[in-house]
Amino acid sequence: MSSDAGAPAAGRKPRILVFTTNAVSDPGVDLAGSAHLDYPVSVRVLAVPCSAGINPDWIVHAFRRGFDGVFIAADGGDCSKVADCTARTSTLVQVAQERMRAEGVAPGRLKMAAICSVCSEPFTTHMRKFSKELEQLGVGGPAPPPPAAPTTPLAAVA
């Protein structure tokens, strides 16, 4: 887990998990990639239907899995799923930050901003700035290894 007590791992860039939304922010993030705009290669993107549906436990889990920061590319006022998306997303961020504190993770490792379908440049600016902030806080160590392959033979399962 990303701890704020340890020294940064030499040479490793902060790993950032970005929650995007299928209809609103994900197209803007995709546009940043297809336009070859510069942002850290250590950013990983996970699309969800609506930012208000993100479970705060998913955010805490990301830190347990070795991510140094989580960014929510929220729908803002453009959400077609729920009328109060911004308020709901803000509330889940507050809940997640409380859980992060309980785990010893600085609340500043979670950021949220409204990203629209054509907001590729603002997205890349957010990622570069957030990565620098996380470097100041320190990264949590080497990235975790990928999950191990199942050890049970397939014939035993059938």
Please, could you describe this protein's structure?
The chain is of the alpha/beta class and 158 residues long. It has a single domain, classed as 3-Layer(aba) Sandwich (Rossmann fold), CATH 3.40.50.960. Helix content is 37%, strand content 15%. It has a 4-stranded parallel sheet, with helices on both faces. Helix 2 (56-64) crosses helix 3. It is globular.
CATH topology: Rossmann fold
Q: How many DSSP E strands? A: 4
Biggest sheet record: 4 strands, parallel
User: Which spans have pLDDT < 50 for at least 5 consecutive residues?
Assistant: 1-8, 141-145
* Total DSSP helices: 5
At CATH level 2, the architecture is: 3-Layer(aba) Sandwich
Q: Could you tell me the strand content as a percent range? A: 5-15%
Structural category is alpha/beta
Supply the CATH superfamily name: Lumazine/riboflavin synthase
Give the CATH class: Alpha Beta
Question: Residue share in helices?
Answer: 25-40%
Number of domains in the coordinates?
A: 1
Strand order of the largest sheet: 2-1-3-4
In short:
The chain is α/β, with parallel strands linked by helices and 158 residues long. The protein has five helices and four strands, in the order βαβαβαβαα.
Index terms:
4-stranded parallel sheet; alpha/beta; 4 strands; globular; 158 residues
Topology record:
Elements: E1 16-21, H1 25-34, E2 43-48, H2 56-64, E3 69-74, H3 85-102, E4 110-114, H4 120-137, H5 154-157
Parallel strand pairs: 1-2, 1-3, 3-4
Helix pairs in contact: 1-4, 2-3
